[in-house]
Give the backbone structure.
Amino acid sequence: MRVLITGGTNGMGKGLARALASDKGSHEIIILCRSKERGLSTIEELEVLGHNHKISFVECDLMKLKDVKRAVNKIKATYDYLDAVFINAGVGYAPKRLVSEDGMMAHFQVNYLSQFILTLNVLDLLEESKAGGRIVFNATRTGKINWDDLQLDHKWSYEEGIHQSMVAKRMFLNKLDKIYNQREKKVSFIGFEISKIVWTNQINIIPFYMKVMSRIMKLFGSFISIDTCGSILLPLFIEEWEASLKRSGSFITWKKGQFEKLEEEDFVLDDVNQNRLWDISLDLSKDEVTRQVSQRLHDLDQA
Ligand SMILES: NC(=O)c1ccc[n+]([C@@H]2O[C@H](COP(=O)([O-])OP(=O)(O)OC[C@H]3O[C@@H](n4cnc5c(N)ncnc54)[C@H](OP(=O)(O)O)[C@@H]3O)[C@@H](O)[C@H]2O)c1
């Protein structure tokens, strides 16, 4: 499988990359990352895990819209198909509200908007997959959309920033599933929530008192490693297409050794809310090519 992973240089994304690199199947791993150094060191780390895997990286700081557009062009110039994408990269803990050069709050832009643009622009590559294109969105079940303050100008917290982007991803994948459901060239869209806390690079970033709390919680088994997380995620990326299609549109988790469907909230499933967020996202993307992709999907939806 040829798998594109956003945020594959650390945490859950690296866990999946390690699982793919260790798997017996022949996989191609493409890491989307914001630094050449981290890209190269991740490739080095993955290469010792297995054989017959092609591993590469595409540089892209998701905090910059111009980088996203450049990365999309690079991906499209290099590959004629993709089998799977893990929409995962994210800003987690932040001591203060960070604003990008595009004028957006970091959590909104990195965790959601940039990956909205990326996703729309690689759908045609996934449609070309012979194994069956699929996108897994890393998401959690809490959160809401602050329609009047999407950038959290008035009341910011990093938790609110993370949670809002999770809900946005769930709305997005659900709308994509509805559009693709009626299509011949299907792609599956799956929301996944990890049911335990993963011991990721976040531990190195959080304040001292949180580090102490985390170490205590670790003693009580509250955390799993990135490798355990990767082995949980792996089947979603390599399973037969029919199995993946059956999951499409669902929000799932992993409990007691199996994937389990989570009840999705009505406001996430609501067409009006989904279309509202989509239109806002398109405007914020300020990209004619992405708008054209959206128009193509819209026409198919109406057909
Ligand atoms: N940890 C958990 O228990 C947990 C649970 C549920 C959901 N999540 C979600 O999982 C996702 C990954 O989190 P994690 O815990 O694995 O965190 P992590 O270890 O900090 O990894 C985050 C990944 O995202 C990348 N990233 C961050 N900002 C970026 C940017 N501007 N451009 C490109 N890449 C960027 C990081 O790159 P660098 O290596 O360059 O920093 C890293 O590869 C997040 O969306 C998080 O909310 C985590």
